Amino acid sequence: MEALADVIVDRVVPALDHPFTYRVPPSMRNDIAVGQLVTVPFRSSVVSGVVYRLYSGPATPEMKEIVAVRTPQPVLTPALLDLAQWMSERYLCFLPQVLRAMIPAAVRRGGEFRSIPQWYRVSARRQGRQSLKQAVYDFIAAQELVDRRTVLDAFPKAAPALRSLVAEHAVEVISRPMSAPLTVEPGHVLSRPQSEVVRSIEAKPGHGWLLEGVTGSGKTEVYLALIDRMVHSDQEALVLLPEIALTPQVVMRFRARYGDQVGVWHSGLSQAERWTTWDNVRRHVTSVVVGARSAIFLPFSRLGMIVIDEEHEPSYKQEDHPRYHTREVALWRGQREGATVVLGSATPSLESRYAAERGELGHVWLPERAMGRALPSVELVDMREELKNGNREIFSRTLRDALCAALADKEQAILFLNRRGYSTFVLCRQCGHALQCPECAVSLTYHRMNHRLTCHYCLREFPVVTRCPECGSEKIRYFGAGTERVVEEVQRLCPDARVLRADRDTMTRARDYASLYLKFYQGDADVLVGTQMIAKGMDFPHVSLVGVVAADTALHLPDYRSAERTFQLLVQAGGRSGRGAKPGRVVIQTYNPDHYAVRLSRTHDYARFYEEELTFRQATQYPPFADLWLLVFEADAGSAAAALAQQAADELRRKWPNLILLGPAPAPLQKVQGRFRYHVLIKIVNPADDGVSLSRGLKDLQSRVPGLSITRDPYFLM
User: Model-level pTM?
Assistant: First the structure.
């Protein structure tokens, strides 16, 4: 009998989607463990792999030996390896794809970043003229100890000032030990409803819970109180957020409570910063991590709690391989590791609310705002009536007057529009031709700041045209409004207003989010204009007005979730108003005031919306009453994509005649990045009968059909 190891090699090939067995050399037997990275010979090359299993057994002559152990300790826990296997089966992806998502790139390459974070504290009194350098000094002086990133988040151009302050010995640099003893600062006294929620969840550790609380009800305080128990019992906690934009304010609150034991994880960090957080989690140095969806794969070994804030957000669904949903992964990992999972939202996903109704999740409520504050009043403005009365501007008279009144009272306002750019499409009024991206067959968006036309799918840019490329006419016009246009309109109406814009064009780095949050929170701007990234989670106590410029942008998309997304966006956007001492007001501009998603958002009536939407889903056999599989066939020619889709659909109908199969049909976005796309949508009403065999059949189909991608329970049907 010899020492053997099953290794998952880092090669994404259908025929290789299983562990391969290698002999463990005698020299390595005391140094190798499950979850370590190793180097192994594979065919004619040497590749990286992960040790999946160690055991004794008979060796065969063709078995090769492991070449080297690349990491001194395991990079994956046994629980994560189990999770990888489950994800591979559930989402029809290859094991190496899952492992790549779990292991940071720097770790896969075997590198280590040993940079020590820099911290600053005041070492001498300094009083200079009002300048950036003095402002930075005062900022550091107001805190006992502050790290470099926090300073630069508050003052993005402060690096030279920091160097100067250190050079003149007004500020000193130290390396704060990451293993400093943890001290938990006391939090706010919880309200009675908050205390009842905490007691209910703590009474059943290791369970999954839905925390349904209106906007501003104090869900974060509940999270903190629950995590206090984890920290005191030497357990770890993970808090997941849907947007990088929310990270700065949440991290500030958690670090005020738990100090430098809080780690951060999201794509906006450098590889060195992500490696540091990953390594601190592995070494049990970090007790609490705040992060985006991929933080669910961090190597916790004493995980006691997972919180998914704003659990309804579609950004928790990964659209590239592996195409997982964070909520499902968190619930599976929580069950496997005995961790409590809390899903928090004012507007829960139908799937979570239905699971709670069926007893699959515990269900707790926070029905009122914290400190007895009232929910904001909401007004619906029918833009059809505005047109009848001759108003063709972006703002209705109601929103215009409300904005001017708020600014006159020295209050802040947020204007929400889920479209970037200045104009959302460019049209020739002579022949009706709309300018489209030649690679993606979608309308180009005009960006006035750089005077370019941009495709938001492949990111190609084109020069602005003065003549129609089809008929040569000069009757080119720009239609639709994006965030740039809204900013211009605010500045036209209120020339003295200080306006910030938040969208994917202005928020390109993690530092941008922190800078914007601090500027608006500290009152350095009057109006914040943005896309959906500002419609969730952010807490600005001086905002008394929220204006939703166009409530209908998502309502008529070819997607069964369009009503749910519209309701959630309207309620969440409106929830940014009236979170301080002043009452809030929300103005929603719509062309569909009678649609139930819009109408019920006016009264924040989630329960009624849930009933109406659930009735629709049951009648049409969509989730939560069916499992969905979306098959997307891509090819260089439309006819080739259509043929692949038709052949696959015929095969599926022949093998599983009880399936509800829609299509094939051209995808709503029929061409993206030069590739033509066709859809086939499968509904499984009885997963227990058809689910397992269909999963195997789809995985086989995926291995045989080039250009086929498969998504379980898709969140985007475009």
Answer: 0.84
